[in-house]
Here is the input.
Amino acid sequence: MVGVVDFPGFYRATIADIPGLIEGAHANIGLGHDFLRHISRCSIFLFVVDTAAVDQRDPISDIQILRKELRLYDEELGERPWLIVPNKIDLEESNLYLEALKTRFPKQEVFPISAEKGDGLDALKKRLCELAGKRPI
Here is the structure.
């Protein structure tokens, strides 16, 4: 899915949501190369993970797998800027994984959000605008 985000100050960015990237995508397992071709056009990566583990997934493992798949497909993709975006911070269960993410990835910027409530989105949008170079529309 592709969408457009308008930033304060008359800036705009195209955002691509690639939900189907699985382990082995670099070897064209699943829809691997189809998704990775789209990803190769992105200049910044956001790894949005469920820190409440509602679906029983481990967000740390998810990020590690995604980062590995990007590097295995194209080493240059692993060098692009990336941010960790822990979602569902409004749920009490999120605290454990949020702290674990910060510990496991101490050099990465972490922008906790609640997509449902809108918490943290302004700070994330501001940082994305900075990383994108604030290109006017």
Helices lie at 32-39, 59-73, 94-104, 121-131. The longest strand covers residues 2-7. The radius of gyration is 15 Å.
